[in-house]
Amino acid sequence: MIREDKGKGMSRKQYSGIRYMAGLLAAVLALTAFSAAAAEGQVKKLPIDLSGGAPYKPAYNEHKEYYEDPTIRVDYHRMNHIEDGERNEYNITYFYAFVTIADASQLRTASADPKGFNGRNRAPAQKIARRVNAVLALDGDFHNNFTRDEGSKYCLRQGTVYRDTVVDFLDMLLIDEDGDFHVYPAGPELKTLNKEEINGKKIINAFQFGPALVIDGEPVADEYVLDPAHAPWSSEPDIKNPRMCIAQIDRLHYFVLTCWHGVNLAQLRDLVLSITPCRTLYVLDGGNSGQLVFQMVQVNLQEGINDRTITDIIYFASADQAGR
Asked: What confidence tens digit (pLDDT) does each residue in 31-86 have?
């Protein structure tokens, strides 16, 4: 894990800018390297099915703070709530990662049940991640939670529709075949909208949790993200649960952040935007389900708090054919 120290005399805005520029530079360098690897035949689109990614090569798995092979770059960070005697703005410990991939097929989902997303199996995120060779994994939307009618929420994973119903009070995140994020806001129209294709592109994965915190580059207003109607278990301003979110920064460039106790959803949005701008930012299952797995280890583990079994993960995988 990286231990981050805020530079003396440096404003929060300056410090956040440095973190973002470092992530952006890594992404640019990674995409350049990916182009060269593709020309040499090392990059191959992964199948849109329940199979996993390419195995690691030991030479790519030596660093705790980043992972890089010819098809994927993950830069992982941990920010402690106190560094050098100073508390950060929200007095929380949080974990985040910048991810760049060579091909959209490397952004994938997996269920605790290897056969698919129909069952009610559960497993720790770390166990699911190991099965599918995930470089970075995070819990998804608890697709088979059948409390408070959530069992009827839409479930499309790896190109297959497993449940074609919706919960109309939840924002929907759709990820298309190019790896681009799209948000359908909550509302009764969700029942009739085309959820398998958008702008002529096939939807590979779709989620119902939310709410969305940034849409088309614009932060969503407090009045929406703190409205219990859209996430009644966690939206209120005084509810400061552990959180999990995922963002698309740009083409094939993503950001993931999770934190221990301490922020409401508006603060989560502001925290992410203090680190990086993004096109889309979407909340996933947090609380006791919030698990971030990097190189097969749950890096945000609090035993007895967020080590529960879960139903599904979102993950980023290698497509390095030389690594097979």
From this structure: 666 766 665 666 789 999 999 999 876 667 667 789 999 999 999 999 988 776 67
Q: Based on the number of CB atoms within 10 Å of its own CB, is 81 exposed (0-12), middle (13-18) or buried (19 or more)?
A: middle
Helix, coil or strand: residue 201? strand
Residue 301 identity? L
Residue 5 banded pLDDT, cuts 50, 70, 90: very low
Do residues 22 and 73 make contact, with C-beta atoms less than 8 angstroms apart? no
Is the pLDDT at 196 greater than 50? The verdict is yes
Q: Are 252 and 28 in contact (CB under 8 A)?
A: no
pLDDT of res. 68? 93
How far is the CA of 39 from the CAs of 59, 72, 208, 237, 316, in angstroms? 21, 15, 38, 50, 22
Beta bridge mates, 257 = 96, 245
CA distance 320 to 324: 7
Name the packing angle between helices 265-275 and 12-39 (round to 10°). Answer: 70
Length of the chain: 324
Encoding tokens for residue 317?
């995988």
What is the longest distance spanned by two Cα atoms in the chain? 54
Q: Provide the token pair at 269.
A: 């949005």
- List Cβ neighbours of 184 (8 Å cut-off, separation of 6 or more): 171, 172, 174, 190, 193, 195
Helix (H, G, I), strand (E, B) or coil at 223: helix
* Segment (H or E) for 181: strand 181-184
Residue 273 has phi, psi (to 5 degrees) of: -70, -20
* CA-to-CA separations, 116 to 50, 159, 161, in angstroms, rounded: 7, 12, 11
Q: Which tens digits make up the pLDDT trace of 290-312?
A: 999 999 999 998 887 788 899 99
Angle, vertex CA 232, rays to CA 308 and CA 210, nearest 5: 70
Provide the pLDDT confidence category of residue 11 given band limits of 50, 70 and 90: very low
